[in-house]
Amino acid sequence: MGLLNAFQHVLGTLGFHRNFSDFLVVFGLAFTRIVTAISLTPFLGGQVVVSNIKVGLAVLMTLLILPGINAQEPPSTNVMMLVALLIKEAMIGTIAGFLTQLFLYTVQMAGAMIDDQRGMNQPGLQAPQLPGNISVLGQLQFQAALVIFITLNGHLIFLRALAHSFQQLPIFSFPRLANPVLLAQEFGEISAHTLALALQLAGPILLTLFLVDVVFGAIGKVASQVNVYHESQPVKAYVGLVVFVFAIGFIFLRFQDLLGEMMLNLSRVLEKIA
Question: Which residue(s) pair with 126 in the sheet?
């Protein structure tokens, strides 16, 4: 009993003036949202970080934001209600983590497009922070974007946005979803915008490689005995790499804009869910 009173005193010192059972409910729901989002975010480790570290980070963040969560009284101690709230929190965390993945999928997709056109996408490397395989230039662009993202404190901005989501979507409230069609349209626009951004990042190199194909096509018309396909592959591989080196400044400069767009997409989706 003395231990419980001491723990209650510690909670009061941290600004949580509720009984122990309410604390467990609030902590469990908030932790579910945070740990789900952190597990899916590539810049916090993704699959390369062991589960113990991700769970520890989620526990620490939950304790830090717990006093600021404006949570109403628990509606009931009904088990089914608590299970439904846990599922809701896991879905919100999944949406937040997925939207942050799109930022790095964009640069990875741009690199894959370039390697496909260069004919150099056969190896299929694996980025430990993302599921699935990745191309050589996709790996380079992905890791560079990760470094720039951390340098710009993007991980702190994301954690701040995640903490703010508890004000937009309180833990004891279910999303209204007044217009699911608008929400589906928002996800469609975000996905389409991701593809458009990948094409913009890869545009200079893809255009150059297209011109190389045109030149070799003309050569094939003039000298039909030349094996155009085999002769063009090494040229496209080297030309694409050279143009990529010259265009890398433009690509990295766009990473800053992608960070802002990622946070804007997360905010818009949460507003439509609330």
Answer: 133
Q: How far apart are CA 36 and CA 99, in angstroms?
A: 13
Please report, for the chain, the start and end positions of each structural domain, with discontinuous segments joined by +. 2-273
| Residue-wise pLDDT tens digits, 128-167 | 555 555 677 777 777 777 787 788 777 788 888 888 888 8
Give which of 249, 250, 218, 248 is closest to 232, Cα–Cα: 218
CA atoms within 13 A on the CB side of 45: 16
The residue among 155, 163, 154 whose CA lies nearest residue 62 is 163
pLDDT > 70 in the chain, percent: 80
CA-CA distances (angstroms) from residue 186 to 95, 99, 179, 189?
Answer: 12, 12, 11, 5
Residue 180, pLDDT above cutoff 80 = no
Q: What is the pLDDT of residue 16?
A: 61
Q: Phi/psi class of residue 73: alpha, beta or left (left: φ > 0; alpha: ψ in -120 to 50)?
A: beta
The mean pLDDT of the chain is 77
Residue 249 to residue 254: CA distance in whole angstroms: 9
Cα–Cα–Cα angle for 129, 34, 27, rounded to 5 degrees? 150
How would residue 190 be classed by pLDDT, with cut points 50, 70 and 90?
confident
- In sequence order, which residues have a C-beta less than 8 Å from that of residue 39 and are 6 or more positions away? 54, 97
Could you tell me the sign of the dihedral formed by the alpha carbons of 208, 211, 217, 220, in that order?
Answer: negative
Residue 274 pairs in a beta bridge with: none
- Rounded CA gap, 152 and 28, in Å? 31
Residues 73 and 210: their CA atoms lie apart, in Å, by 62
Specify the amino acid at residue 59.
V
Q: How far apart are CA 148 and CA 25, in angstroms?
A: 38
Task: Flag whether pLDDT at 91 surpasses 60.
Answer: yes
